Each structure stands twice: as structure tokens, then as C-alpha cells.
Amino acid sequence: MPSDTRTPRPGRPRKPRGSLRGSPLFRLRFGFLAIAMVLSVFGARLVQLQGIDPKAYAEMAAAEGIVNVSLPAKRGDILDRNGEPLARSVEGLRIVADPLLTTDQAPELAKFLANRLDVDYFSLLPRLREEGSRYEYVARRVPSTVATRVVDEAADRGFKGLFTERDPVRDYPAHDVAANLVGFMGIDKPLAGFEQTFDGLLAGTDGSARYQVGGGNRLPLGDNTVVEPVDGQDITTTLDQDLQWYTQRVLRQTVEDARGDSGFAVVMDTRTGELLALADHPTFDAADPAASDATDRGSRAMSDVYEPGSVQKVLTVAGLLDAGKATPESRLRVPSELRRDGRVINDWFPHDELKLTLAGVIAKSSNIGTVNAADHFGRGELRRYLAKFGLGEKTDIGVRSEASGVLPSSSMWSSLVDDRVAFGQSLSVNAVQMAAAVNTIANGGVHVDPSLIQGSATTDDGVEVGTDVATTRRVVSEKAARGTARMMERVLDPEGGTAPGAAVPGYRVAGKTGTAQRVGEECACYDGTFTVSFAGFAPADDPRFTVYVVVQNPRNGGGGGSVGGPAFSKIMSYALKRYGVPPTGTKPSNLPLEW
User: Fold this and answer.
1) Would you say which domain of life the source belongs to (predicted)?
2) Is 411 a known active-site residue?
3) pLDDT by residue (tens digit) across 341-355?
4) What's the pTM value of the predicted model, to 2 decimals?
5) Which domains does the chain have, with CATH numbers?
6) Active-site residue among 89, 262, 299, 310?
């Protein structure tokens, strides 16, 4: 290799090997110096943030923090049997504030929002100033048009930091139709009815979103995590919205015309036990529950118990026929009064001694005749039949606060109780219980559990309800049921019956009136008020529907035939026509009433 013959430039001496800058000791010292300078800068900044300006540090942390947001699930709809919504979720928005941007204008913004939304100024103000927060609720479940208008107006006025997110609103398009069963929602939880009973199914599961913000904006490349919500399940009821609407209107007019305190009506599919209508009056608008009295927001048909009166007599005679103790033409002497155990039993109408058949006893609704006929029962036999008819037990159809009624226990069952129960006093029922019992006669002697839910659903108490879990049981023979139905037809006889006003033109109808004394809450005694009712089914010889109408404390002097009968006729006529049930074309019962 040739030697280096280049001559060094004048004035630039060659750098000697082993100079200080290239030595390991120099590099080590320089590194320590650089580290010390960086640590000094960090230390000074830490002192500033923690000791000199902590508020500025908190604001910076919030400005570049993590926001956690709940993503609400859509609540399931409550539908009638034809898929029409009784309760549904529609698009809504929630209004949310970013306190980092609203703090400076908090008092003015809180006043603005309180004037335009259903929010309280004093509770909202601290949320608009919440230190360290980037996300505070202003209002939940606001209709989309309202929320958008408010936020846009706020922006036009120079307010910053408001935005909207999806938040479905509960809507009740049917308003008062079936409101006593459907119930209603509060801001964040259900407060009554199916909304509360089936909340676990309807509510679904909320999702969540977690994202990073910086400088007042969401960082697209920051920490972003989303768990999608799981929407709630729909619940389909057995109710027919149109029939429910009509039943409620007839019931309201009936109660008002009778100047009664309240009333309820039941329409049941005879064969399936499905409740097509379950009406209460007074009722309320589920879209505006606060406008009504709290006592009107439940179902009196399920929670109120009362003595059924003479409607009960059809159960008594059905048991007698089934046990072979009587026939529709059995002859009975009916005195003007009956003395039993030191007490006097009277009929609702004055009379001398009558010679009535059992059919005549039912047609004229004689207490004395019923008691005489019931004397043929063995000890405890009447009670066993009534228990099989479902009295004294809840129906468990999915309505909260259902009362079980009272069927006196065997140990409390005396001869006096036996007499009074035979014609419908000294026991209590709820309306659906009694309707299902009468429906047993319409259904050929087979009791079918009433249902309000199609398919099956589990209540929040863990009870499975619905048509899929409804059971049946035979209570009386088909022959006994048909014999009882023929006697019930005579109740509508224009000359000998108590309820000609319950007739449905063109159809054979079987029915029974009821008038019972009421027990007053204050005295726990019969207080001079009454429960009047009418129960029946049609066509009498091939039943399709059972209808039961009850009015509490009518002040017009009417009874079960004059008050409940016409209401029954209207509701039954509507149901038969709506479902296209033709008349059977057969001749009505002509059982003799006297002998």
C-alpha cells in the first residue's frame, strides 16, 4: 500500500491521538450533565404544577382525560294481540354538558335550560360547574325535536358545551287504553304495571363507550372502547286494543250513569282463557300519570276484593247438578223468609210462598231457594267445589298487587257460613277470579287458567306466566255445565227473569245478576252500600266469550240486571261482531220456572 505523502496544511496541526473529547471519561461527564439538566426541568415543572398552579393542572388533566358514557338499550314494546303498541320506545335524546366549557356561563345557562326543560335550576347549576368532569347529564329522554331545538337555541345565544346523544323515550300511544295493566315509566325506572312486573325482560342491557378527549374534542386516535347495548324484549299481551277501548268506554258510561264509585269489566275467550279486555274505571293516561290520582293507577279488577253476590249462585247449582243432588227442574218451596241459626234470610223481592224449580230459583235470583237447594250438599262439599272453581287463590296472570280473595277455611265453615256462601256472601273474590269461575260453566265444566300474556314470560319475581303455561282442570261434568247454562238463559227471560236488558239480539245468551252488600272499611261491617254485577256468555249453546261487569256502590238504586245487564249486552254484542261469531240459530232454553 502506498505511503501517505500528503503534506499537512500550514497553521492546521494534525489532531493528536488520545484527545480529551474522545475519551470515555469526557463522554461520561457530559451524559451526567445532560441528565441533570433534564431532571431539573422536570422538577421545576412538578413544583409548579403541585405547589404553584394545581387548578391549572387539574384543568389540563380534564382537558385530556377519559370520558365514560352509558349507551342506553332500547326498551321492549308492550303490544296487544294484533301487534298494536300499548307502550313503545321512540327516538329521543339526552342533553349533556361539558363542564370544562360551561363553567364560565353556568348561571346563565342553567337559567336558560330550566326555562325550557323540566329541570331544576339549583340542581343543574353545580353539574355545569363540576370540576374535573367532561360529561354531565342535563336532561334524560327528551323528545328529539325538543332536545335539538334547545341545543340549537343555546348555541345561537353563545352558550358552549352542550351536545346530545341517543336516549329512547317511552311512549304510550293508546293513552288510557289498558293503562291500569301496562303501567308507566319514571325517569330511570318503571313505576307500575307490566312496565314494572316484566322490567327484567323489557329493559335490556345498557352498553357503554369510553373515549379520550383532548383540547375539548374527542381524539380519533385516542383510547376508544364501545360495548354495544342489548335491546329489551317485546311482550305481546292477549288484549285486543279496540275491544279494550270499547269496553272501557262502556264501563265509564255505566259507572257514571249509576253514580257509582268505580267499576271493572272482563272479556274472556271462553276456550283459551285469554283476556281480550280487562277494564277499570276510574283510570288514567299512561302518557301523563301525574295528572291522575295515585289510587286510579292500579287495576282494581285485580286488587279490590268484594263479595260476588248472586253471580255465585250459578257455581252452587253447578255443583249440585254435578253431584247428582238436583236437576234444573227440581222442585223447591220458597217461603217468604227463612229462619236459620237465629237469623232471617230474605229475598231481594217480597213474596208469599213460591213454588219454583231450580231454574226458577236462578231466574228470579232467590236467596231462600238457593239455600234450600244447597242443603243437599254434604259437609264441606260446597267449599270443595268453590275451591275447584278457583276461588280463594290468585290467578297469577302477571298483575302486581293481585288479591287472592277469601274462601273461608274448613275450620271457619259453620252452617251459617254455608248458607251465606251459597248465595254469594261471606266470601270475597277479584273480578278475574270470578270471571274465570263463570267461564268454567261456559267451557263445558273445564276451568282454564286466565292469561294476559301470549306465549310465556317470567315476572321479576320469578313467576312464569302466559298462555303457554296455562293449565286446565275439570270442575263439573259437561252435563252439569250445560244444565246450568240452560238455567242461566232463563235469567234473560222478559217475563220471569231478572235481566232482560242483558239480551243480545239474534243470540242465545246465558247470564246471572249479582247484588251483594259491601263491607265498609271503617266499621268492618255491612255499611248499606252494594256491589252490583252481571256475568254471562254467548252463544249460550256454543260459548265463545264470557263477559263480567261490576259496579261498586251505584247510587241510582239499580241492581245487577238494570246496571250491569245493559253494559254486558253492549260489550258482548261488540265482541261477537268483531270476531265474526254467527248466531247458532237454535231455540233458547224453555225450562219451567215454576211447578
Assistant:
1) Bacteria
2) no
3) 889 999 999 999 999
4) 0.84
5) 59-87+168-237 (3.90.1310.10), 92-117+134-166 (no CATH), 241-288+299-578 (3.40.710.10)
6) 310
